[in-house]
Design goal:
By secondary structure, the chain is of the alpha+beta class. It folds into two domains: about 160 residues, no CATH class; about 25 residues. It has nine helices and nine strands. Strands 2, 3, 7, 8 and 9 form a five-stranded mixed beta sheet that branches. α3 packs antiparallel against α4. The mean pLDDT is about 80.
Length: about 210
Amino acid sequence: MILQALYSYYHALAQKGEISKEGWCVAKVSFALVLDQNGALLDIMPLKVSKEFGKKTVDVPREMNLPNQLKRSGSKAPPYFLCDNTQYILGLEKGEVTEKSLRCFKAFSEYHIQMLSPLQCPEAQAIVRFLRSWQPIEALKHPVIIANQPHLLEGGNFVFRLSETSSYAMSGIEQTFPPHLNLDEQGTFILGYYHQTQKQYEKQNKED
């Protein structure tokens, strides 16, 4: 009875957003890429919030519940899911295109196209269209990038937002995932996740 009560309490807190759901974490996010349903980049939206530290008011990244972001290291670390820095999400490093940023964007793009293409929701398809059409080499000529150079130089994590629904992409994509998995489905998911993660590191080792 105690375990059942604790389990129910955990899910109640998770639904309120007071704690992260299993497999999720609280990530710090500074900006959102605003896309239309065709995957066109319309704007970069600041997401920082003002907080008081003593007598000072400082803008800090917004805390959002997102899929787990495990610690990564090395020059060829794998991308995060639906949230990352400009190197991965735009192919830009400190406002410029570099060999590393191109490599990061390629990894981010391939990973998300594979994961999101089967999902029939506007948010997933908009991101897929964006990644298939986005060319980092041409990015510096894009009017949205030109207008938001200061934001790009600030660094920080970015998420996606769909202009038509005014919602963050994760909200719509999450609805396509089943809320619960039976034991067989859990085993299949764990095996698939393991092999996919290993495959990412295999690619890195081959390049090294």
